[in-house]
Amino acid sequence: MEKTENCSAATTDEQEIHYRGIKAMPYVIGNETFEKLGTTGTSNNLLVYLTTIFNMKSISATNLVNVFNGTCNLATLIGAFLSDTYFGRYTTLGFASISSFLGMVLLTLTAAVSKLHPPACNKSSENGTCDGPTPWQMTFLLSGLGLMVMGAGGIRPCNLAFGADQFNPETKSGKRGITSFFNWYYFTYTFAMMVSLTIIVYVQSDVSWAWGLAIPAFMMFLSCLMFFIGTKMYVKVKPQGSPITSVIQVIIAAVRKRKLKQPDEPWISLFNHIPKASINSKLAYSDQFRFLNKAAILTPEDKINSDGSAMNPWKLCSLQKVEEIKCLIRVVPIWASGIIYSVAMVQQQTYVVFQAIQSDRYLGHTGFNIPAASFGIFTMIGVTIWIPIYDRLIVPWLQKYTKKEGGITLLQKMSIGMVLAIITMVISAIVEDRRRALALSNPIGIDSKKRSISSLSTMWLIPQLTLIGLSEAFTLIGLIEFYYKQFPENMRSIAGSFTFIGLALSSYLSSFLISVVHKISERSQTGDWLPEDLNKGKLDYFYYLVAGLEVMNLGYFIMCANWYKYKEGGSTGNGVEGDDDMVKLQSDGV
């Protein structure tokens, strides 16, 4: 679909954009669903694959998986920058999807072809030792993982923004469609995780690794197919050049003019040229970070091009550009609070497995022992059930009373999730105290590491797992939507990367917190809170500590929310390719 322009000076300089909205969703949602099934199906059991098929030591395999996951999240910043600056989201997604597919194919071959992985331990030698992978086998493996990193770096920051690009942000139905899309986006993620943790993991572990890795690769092929089939229906936002450069230009121009006096009426007197091709909304003036306004003060030394733009953007920036940078700066404190929130999520997902290991995991009187790692599925079941109810029933009901898009504001939505996270940690502490008490007074057995197994049923872990899932549905979905709507339009891929960078940082922060608590508590009178045997520790104290941190974070978040000013402005400008219900956008960006 090509951009249509009226080149006649006598006619109105407008652009017709056709937003297909819900009509494009089968291709967008289908692409994302199959992509998540492919990537999660490959990565969820990667640690087991490396230790059992590639005969890697647990420490080496753990480090490789951590580096792989961390690099995937950090690569989103590079992918977002390339998307917003050079290629656009459509091209970036297409290239990244093919890269992920090829990476999964290579990984599948390492399992299917015997010469591409070490021999099994019982065949490698008579003394029982296992041969590790050869250098070229590792090279083949790392090549597959490298292609998957490239794919993740392009897909993760762009697919959400690309899906939202298909809706008209200027109409009620378009705004409602964007909000609904964010909810269903997270729904597909939890659905993919449920399938991966059950069916695909079962095939990999109990049937065949070759088939278990081939299934995700085939899913990724279907993802590519769905994506390219819908090509003619998509709205494609053109890249507008480096947004990072704009940030640096505003800061340098403001520093250069730091000695100038602020004008009395900045919204009138400051330089404010808006390029005709800009895709960004025209923003209202904000008094926050007024120092940056000096970048838009027009002096006799500043020269203007014939089209009205500044000849030297390192000395003079438009007020519009200054306001866009203010939007970015305002988001950072909320982003920091989201990182702290995610710590509770990470801790819950980590230690609930250890709690399940030392609890009664039998399903009633059936004799079936539920795997400890499978309890995370209850979090996803809760989210999967809740999102359709919230999106189709609760949001419309709230809208009738609040008259607000989405029923409540995004910051209010996030705060509800943070409150639920605090409640979750308190419940987790209470359940752990009871679990440990029964393990010491009424154990039902001893595990392989000679640790007492509590008679408390693991069914008591379901409430906390369900609550943390509901908490994620409010806060994480709220954060994703918040980044998309509050970032300037030309930085929305970078906005998508903020979520994954935040998750990476929260993982690092969680590891740091555990290390600090472990070192400090082992020298205390109560003893180590987090030993190998939970019955000898104080995991409930640790949960209360995390709950306390979340309470402080909630206070910080409320303070930031009261200070925060939502992005305000008019309609978007040009720079969009599309083909939908005709929408006319004035070329001056108003």
Automatic annotation (TrEMBL):
Sorted UniProt keywords: Membrane, Transmembrane, Transmembrane helix
Any one GO CC term of the record: membrane
Lipid bilayer topology: Multi-pass membrane protein
GO molecular function, one term: transmembrane transporter activity
Transmembrane intervals: 64-82, 94-113, 184-203, 209-229, 328-348, 368-389, 410-431, 460-484, 496-521, 541-564
Similarity comment: Belongs to the major facilitator superfamily. Proton-dependent oligopeptide transporter (POT/PTR) (TC 2.A.17) family.
This protein's name: Major facilitator superfamily (MFS) profile domain-containing protein
Protein source organism: Gossypium tomentosum (Hawaiian cotton)
